Amino acid sequence: MIRAVEAGIRHVLSGGLPFVGVVVTADGGVSEPGFNRVPETGDPTAHAEIVALRQAAEERGSSALTGATLLATGEPCALCYRFSAGHGISRVYYAVDRDSAAEWGFDYRASYAADCTQDLPIAATAQHLAVDRAPEPFAAYLHRRAGGGAPRL
């Protein structure tokens, strides 16, 4: 998760969003970070978690997702929880929860009720993983967006 947060900081500093996903397969394989690519691709499903899952499936085969763990810098939205559950992910850990993400300007909490996400076992068992620097990608994004240029981290 530490590497995911650091990748998120670098991604924001290069103009991207603070969301990063990483897949850890049941045999210990670790995917490359998946970044939120919605703005640059126009693909509304190109969320960091989904990008990471697609990359891991392409690299290792879709069966490698079964029993894997998803690490996310921000708690997954309803779409990402559903996609993860549908592709065999068994555990989800996140560095910044949905309420904190909302405080940083990314409020997707309404998607959970609209999609009945609370009924998904994977969402109910997802856990916050405390990591130093977890809010930094979000803070860097807000700083850059406010016209402050590259923040001093």
From TrEMBL:
Database matches in Pfam families: dCMP_cyt_deam_1 (PF00383)
Location of the CMP/dCMP-type deaminase domain: 1-115
Chain ranges passing through the membrane: none
Superkingdom to which the source organism belongs: Bacteria
PANTHER family membership: CMP_DCMP-TYPE DEAMINASE DOMAIN-CONTAINING PROTEIN, CYTOSINE DEAMINASE FAMILY MEMBER
Protein name according to UniProt: Deaminase
Species for this entry: Saccharopolyspora mangrovi
Lineage: Bacteria, Bacillati, Actinomycetota, Actinomycetes, Pseudonocardiales
